[in-house]
Design brief:
Length: 141
């Protein structure tokens, strides 16, 4: 009788371990970051002493962007190298917009941060976008 109890107890422990490992393998739910914004990409680098900065943003159909601000900041000093306020953005494709700008007198070897802030509105709902990308500019030709 004791052997049967030990066997049942071992089976119960084994089943509970299998149940735990199965439940741990379930995928977690990932919530979207924004309601009206599909994607934002920030890219910047330097060629010589000129920084090349670009921002691409894809928004929902019928959404509008407001209060767009793009800055290139020298990370070591926090000095704003260049700022673009409500810049003209090129339409790349349906609801995808692109910005490209340059900044002069960049110091190769220094670290710079490109920041992008805007509001994306649709049906009274606003996405407040605030993103940045940091790069150390190396010598390129």
């Amino acid at each position: 009788m004791q052997k049967i109890k030990n066997c049942l107890l071992a089976c119960l422990v084994l089943v509970s371990l299998l149940t735990c490992s199965v439940s741990a393998a379930l995928p977690e739910v990932v919530e979207p970051l924004w309601n009206n914004t599909n994607d934002v990409a920030l890219v910047h680098n330097a060629v010589g002493t000129t920084a090349h900065c670009s921002v691409d943003i894809s928004i929902a159909s019928g959404a509008i962007m407001r209060n767009v601000s793009i800055r290139l900041i020298e990370s070591g000093t926090a000095d704003v190298v260049k700022e673009w306020v409500d810049p003209e953005m090129t339409v790349l494709a349906f609801n995808t917009y692109s910005f490209y700008g340059t900044a002069e007198n960049i110091v190769v070897g220094n670290t710079y941060r490109l920041t992008f802030q805007c509001e994306v509105w649709k049906n009274g709902v606003c996405d407040y976008i605030s993103l940045s990308s940091t790069e150390t500019y190396s010598a390129t030709e």
